[in-house]
Amino acid sequence: MKLLLYIILLYCSIMSLPAQSQTDILAVQDLEKQRSETAKEIELTSQLLSETDASARNSLNRLNLLSQQLLSRTKIITLLGQEISALDRKIDGMTKEIEILDKDLASTKENYAKSMANQQSEYRTTQHKMMIILSAENFTQTYRRMRYLHEYSDWQKNEAARILKKQDELANRKSELEKSRKNKQSLLAEREDENRKLTTEEQDQKKTVNELNKRKKNLQQQLQQKIKESDALNRQIDALITEDIQVSEKNSSTATAATNKKNVKTAPASSSSSTAKGSYVMTEAELNLSKDFASNKGRLPYPIAGNHKIVSLFGNHQHQQLSHVRTNNNGIDIQTTVGNEARAIFKGVVTRVFLMPGFNNSVIVRHGNYLTVYSNLIQVYVHAGDAVTTNQAVGKIFTDTANGNETILHFQLWKERTKLDPEPWIKEY
What we know:
Layout: H1 2-12, H2 22-50, H3 60-120, H4 126-134, H5 139-214, H6 216-262, H7 284-295, E1 308-312, E2 315-318, E3 326-329, E4 332-336, E5 341-343, E6 348-356, E7 360-367, E8 370-380, E9 387-388, E10 393-397, E11 399-400, E12 406-415, E13 418-420
Antiparallel strand pairs: 1-4, 2-3, 4-12, 5-10, 6-7, 6-9, 7-8, 8-10, 8-12, 11-12, 12-13
């Protein structure tokens, strides 16, 4: 009876360990991923800034790059703070778990030691065990006593194995805890470094803003000239689209007349083309291409491969740092590295290649009733009438050596004669 009570007390001393929370572990992993992606953005912008030489240190595009760099740097610092907080929670949870493991191991060792000591006493000798078995009143009682002694022996072996397992688990937890503490110290140092970089970049941005404010009149003149050039480009594109619409309507009328003449005694064949007045009349193939283009909204590739950054957004915007600067963009401006090329964002047909002051060469690619425009090309690889495929290079982007080697693609997206914001249509790959 004394032995049975002792076994019950031993089992009651076993504690269940709390499972390591996965929430903070997953949170840290997600934050690390976001931080890695933001670090790539910073690296990209830094490269573009480093390629901008002294002659363009006070350019508006450089200021835009600096502003984006500051936003990315601030995001990095915020993510580092969140990561440190998540690690703090993880460290706290692991510390509590180790305390429980320590207590459980100590208790298990103590109970096991008592059982082994008791094993060596006179009450646990082989002779005594035999007396317990032989003093049974019947066979059933003998069997139960033998089974009981056997199970008690097995329990002792299992406890010894459990102690070794707990020791290994405790060592692993302590090693993991130490690793997390070192990781936290590394993140704290990295955050401090990012803060220093942020301070330097803020000073650089402030200096650039001051210089641009001093050149307010000159900058406004440059912007007015850019607006004139942009309006001229817009009128040219609109005129070319109108011309395409007129040609498509004429071709459609000719095709319909020929069909009716051929089938004089039958009802006129239904046209598979779009015949809305004032719209581009599409063939069946163009209609399918247009639907295919529209269905890929948000998944179309950027018109530039390699390093690139949007420096001017679509639409009318007040500049955040310069109160006297307001921009109006019919598309988006994407700055990239010297020697980069413009690439078609979808399969289609080149309808126009033309030259415009301020935008060098431009290429228009038709995708049904959608059109993409690639401007500021110094060299063009395609001709009107050429079929192009997705990601096919259409031309080399102009590098402005007089303005710090800025290499900027002006990209537009139209549906019929309506300008669309390209950014929601394209996605980083």
